[in-house]
Design a protein that fits this description.
262 residues; alpha/beta; Rossmann fold; Transcription Regulator spoIIAA; six-stranded parallel beta sheet; 8 helices; 13 strands; 35% helix; elongated; MEDS domain-containing protein; STAS_dom_sf; STAS_dom
């Protein structure tokens, strides 16, 4: 068996956790790995919703001891046996992540360090910046293989804006009262090289009419704006607003089933 990977990430908000950990879990499911999560607590529903929006589980999906994503007890002593059991089921690899919400050294780290040396196990340890003790950032770099990049163009804990290549990812909630967030989206969009803008709104849980209207009016001029992953409600709202600005060009990729563009 090949050696695994043991990375960490330092997060600034709950929105960052939902996005970064969600992406890590989704990637594991798509690779055919078994994903184990521990210590999520009240974060579980948000992660399950993220998996559904990504299309890797069905609408009625719930985790169990036999599903591809499993909730495990936050007890590092049980982890080696759990990993062996999963690999015995035939999975090519194991992923492990969760939420570290206590300051100081995490008891999982020593156990994980041994496991990844011997097993195909990919680990992401999520730490919250405001819980790090003085000097802990240095110790994290020593005991992990690499730091996962969780930088954002904007993150106020409610709305988060990140860039992957030429695509902007809008996550969380965006309303017309959040002027800083609106400015961040427009500033980042309009600073492009003049090519068409693409926004991934798969994880945008809410946008009000005022915010949508402002963004469509400002950002959808030639050469246009493409929205990826829009929910049925967001798609309908954007189409209606685009009609109010006939000089604006908005395209909806991955049109929701049952909807016909107008």
């Amino acid at each position: 068996m090949s050696r695994g990977a043991h990375d960490y990430v330092v997060l600034d908000s709950e929105e960052a956790h939902a996005q970064v950990v969600g992406d890590f879990v989704v990637e594991g499911v798509r690779r055919g790995e078994c994903v184990m999560v521990a210590g999520l607590g009240t974060r579980e529903p948000r992660l399950w919703a993220r998996l559904r929006r990504a299309g890797v589980v069905g609408e009625d999906w719930q985790p169990s001891d036999t599903t591809v994503v499993r909730v495990v007890a936050p007890d590092p002593a049980t982890l080696p046996d759990l990993v062996e059991s999963v690999l015995a089921e035939g999975y090519a690899g194991v992923r492990f992540t969760g939420a570290i919400t206590a300051a100081g050294e995490n008891p999982f780290e020593e156990v994980i360090g041994r496991l990844v040396d011997e097993r195909p196990m990919t680990v992401l340890c999520p730490y919250f910046r405001d819980l790090l003790l003085p000097g802990q950032r240095t110790s994290l770099a020593v005991c992990h293989d690499a730091e996962h990049d969780a930088s954002a163009e904007f993150d106020d804990g409610v709305f988060r804006l990140t860039r992957v290549g030429q695509v902007l990812h809008l996550t969380g909630e965006l309303d017309s009262g959040n002027a800083d967030a609106l400015r961040a989206v427009l500033r980042t969009t309009l600073s492009e090289d003049g090519g068409p803008a693409t926004w991934d709104v798969t994880d945008l849980r809410f946008i009000d009419v005022g915010a949508a209207d402002s963004l469509v009016a400002a950002a959808a001029g030639p050469p246009g704006l493409t929205l990826v992953g829009a929910s049925r409600l967001t798609a309908r709202l954007v189409r209606l607003l685009a009609e109010r600005h006939p000089d604006r060009q908005v395209a909806l990729a991955d049109e929701p089933p049952g909807e016909t563009p107008r």
